[in-house]
Amino acid sequence: MFLTKVLIASFCAYVVADMAPNYPEPGTIWKSGTEYEISWFDDKKAPSISKAWKNFKIDFMTGDNNNQKFLKNVAKNLDASQLDSINWTAPVVKPHSAIYFLMFTNEKGDNAWTTRFAITDEEDKLTKPQHAVQPDGAKIPWGVGRMVSDAKGFPLSNVAYSMTPAMASAAERNAAVEIAVSNNSNQKVKLSLGVLFVSAAASLLLNL
Predict the structure, then answer these.
(1) What values do phi and psi take at 70, rounded to 5?
(2) Torsion of CA 111, 114, 117, 119, to 10 degrees
(3) What is the span of the domain harbouring residue 127?
(4) What's the average model confidence in pLDDT over 2-23?
(5) Do strands 92-94 and 146-149 pair parallel, antiparallel, or not at all (unpaired)?
(6) How many domains does the chain have?
(7) Based on C-alpha coordinates, what's the Rg of the chain?
(8) Is 67 in contact with 164 (CB distance < 8 Å)?
(9) How far apart are the first and last CA of the chain?
(10) 159-196, pLDDT tens digit by residue?
(11) Does the model's pTM come out above 0.70?
């Protein structure tokens, strides 16, 4: 069985409020076109999640710790007092590597992050992240991915986010979770009842 060891950085330690994303988790591998659950919970620290996260959004991200790049909004106007998970269909991306993560942001601008996770295709082939070390020297593998398409054929956005020194420090402290990535890895999967349609423009990009 082909195994590739990768390191994953966890972003979720630096949280002003008490949002604690817990899936995707370390070692998560998603397959494009398949629907998965994104979940979170209350870490029991004040203020309560029902008060501090009554209006938040989730964004699909890539990039290094200090220059996080926005790829697509996953969901917005979410209320943590009413929900603890949503479903989302993994988009078609390149490269297929553990360089993607989700960023949660509430209306006050507080953030929480999932770990970096991988998205692959029908062949279940993964590549190592493009970089083994962050620009600041932290030994946290990362890379910059792009969306080829999603179910609606939306293209990649070039918006980028910058982390504060405290945020980057928190990410570094929670780095270096070693996992084994396999094409036979057990995955938390919910099969989508829908079919992933790729637009003609997205198909051209896919062949680049």
Answers:
(1) -75, 130
(2) -70
(3) 3-206
(4) 53
(5) antiparallel
(6) 1
(7) 16
(8) no
(9) 29
(10) 555 555 445 444 444 443 333 333 333 333 332 323 22
(11) no
